[in-house]
Amino acid sequence: MKTVIVFWSGTGNTEALAQSVAKGVQAAGGSADVFKVGEITPEQAAAYDKIALGCPAMGAEELEEAEFAPFYDALEPLLKGKTVGLFGSYDWGDGEWMRLWEKRAADAGLNVAATLTVQSAEPGVGESVAFGKKLA
């Protein structure tokens, strides 16, 4: 099965997580393509068997508004019944944006197989490899 990993990263932490998620998918015998938001359309992403989405907490613990949120808004209706994983990093707060995102995805009918939330001071490479294996 083929997995797509789509992410937005402001400081590089979420990008590092995305690369490690791909390593985890590959270690579990799957294949993964990694794209920054803007390099793939929602329709192209929805064509994959499994989807991992990465976005750090922004503002008042929310998804990045200019690029990632519009992408996700367009993608979410295309993913009903699909297996998805959500990941991201934060530097302050308590990770509420991930809990809200996970609930939103579940309420939309997505099969959230895994989530990963790490503090940006420590990119969580080992955790993200395990996340990728779980998703695969």
How would you describe this protein?
This protein is an alpha/beta fold. The model has no long low-confidence stretch (mean pLDDT 91). Helix 1 (13-27) crosses helix 5 (125-135). 44% of the residues are buried. Helices cover 38% and strands 25% of the residues. The protein has a single domain, classed as Rossmann fold, CATH 3.40.50. It has helices at residues 13-27, 42-46, 68-75, 96-107, 125-135, and strands spanning 2-7, 31-36, 50-54, 83-90, 111-119. Helix 3 (68-75) links the parallel strand 3 (50-54) and strand 4 (83-90). It contains five helices and five strands; from the N terminus they run βαβαβαβαβα. A five-stranded parallel sheet has the order 2-1-3-4-5, with helices on both faces.
What is shown here, in short?
The chain has a five-stranded parallel sheet with strand order 2-1-3-4-5, sandwiched between helices. The protein has five helices and five strands; from the N terminus they run E-H-E-H-E-H-E-H-E-H.
Strand order of the largest sheet: 2-1-3-4-5
What is the arithmetic mean of pLDDT?
91
Report the portion of residues in β strands: 25-35%
CATH architecture: 3-Layer(aba) Sandwich
- CATH homologous superfamily title: Flavodoxin domain
The helix-and-strand class reads alpha/beta
Summarize the helix and strand pattern as letters: EHEHEHEHEH
Please summarize the sheet with the most strands: 5 strands, parallel
Q: Would you give the CATH topology?
A: Rossmann fold
Q: Give the C-alpha Rg.
A: 13 Å
Per CATH, the class reads Alpha Beta
